[in-house]
Amino acid sequence: MSRTSIKRALIASSFALALTAAFSAGAQPVAQSTTSALPDANLYTSYYFGSGYQNVTWIVCGSTAATEGCYGSGTLGPFGKAGALLQSDPVEYEGAVIRYIYVVDTAAGTGKSVKLDVYKKSDVTTNTGNTTTVTLVKAVPLPQLVGGAGATAYLAANSGYLFVGTNLSTDAIKLEKTNLTNTFAYGGFSPALNLAGISADSSGNVTMTYGSAAAGGFTGNIQIGADGSLLGDGGGAWVSLNPAIGLITDALPTSDTFPVNKMHVRLKKNVVTQGAAGQ
Question: What is the pTM of this model?
Fold first, then answer.
């Protein structure tokens, strides 16, 4: 099996044309507050799914300085099937706390397409209440991915990028959060391997795992750093772990052989090491 992945820049001009003023206005501000200092720090949002995962209902509950209870609710969708969801870190901006909700629809269009829907969630909290507004700001088709019946969606993120894929696709897609127009595909293993999962650690490193859960099947991985650069790729069903979400192993490939060739240390370029004599 070739351990070299093929990374293809897939810049879709149609995505650039679809960059709307609404999304530009809703782009994530740079100035951030710590979670403990946010006005809605004592509120939480819960979600549940409607029949067929075609709608997602949200409700905001908790307490303010003078009140407690549930302050608002609404619905995301409709979707063909909401296959994966992710919420961004909060940002305080002009009196509101902004979060973005990313939804991977694995049955968009005629039921076989994959689409990423991006919602802007805004919470304005006072001593006596909270007002929540959720607006769809961007719908991004992902024709590089295979959806439909039997498609399981994978979704992860770090501060600058989103990583999306399905178990029926041989590629995973990286999108820049700032505009969602530039996509980069990771895959190209030989023999071809379908995606088996996307995982991330608390530092923002992301691992895309490829291969079959069947014993003896070929496996591969591609690892991306927090800055979006390639850390490494090759054979082996490697994953990342984080302190917030437990990794589900049911669909991941297994192996009883540790790849010794992964263990190596080399000097960095342009780094001068100090000798024993201090030279």
Answer: 0.84
Q: For the segment 211-250, what is each residue's pLDDT rounded down to a tens digit?
A: 986 656 889 999 999 999 999 999 999 999 999 999 999 9
In a domain, 267, yes or no: no
Residue at 124 is within a domain: yes
Cβ-based neighbours of 51, under 8 Å, separated by 6 or more: none
The span from the CA of 263 to the CA of 279, in Å, is: 29
Provide the number of structural domains found in the chain.
Answer: 1
Enclosing domain of residue 36? 6-261
Tell me which residue has tokens 């940002």.
91
Q: What is the pLDDT of residues 43-59, one digit of tens each?
A: 999 999 999 999 999 99
Rounded Cα distance, 171 and 193, in Å? 9
Residues β-bridged to residue 49 = 56
Q: Which two tokens stand for residue 116?
A: 């990423």
> Is 176 inside any structural domain?
yes
Q: Is residue 275 part of a domain?
A: no
Q: What is the 3-state secondary structure (H, E, C) of the chain?
A: CECCCEEEEEECHHHHHCCCHHHHHCCCCCCCCCHHHCCCCCEEEEEEECHHHCCEEEEEEEECCCCEEEEEEEEECCCCCEEEEEECCCEEECCEEEEEEEEEEEEECCCCEEEEEEEEEEEEECCCCEEEEEEEEEEEECCCCCCCCCCCEEEEECCCEEEEEECCCCCEEEEECCCCCEEEEEECCECCCCEEEEEECCCCCEEEEEECCCCCCCEEEEEECCCCCEEEEEECCCCCCCCCCCCCCCCCCCCCCCCHHHCCCCCCCCCCCCCCCCC
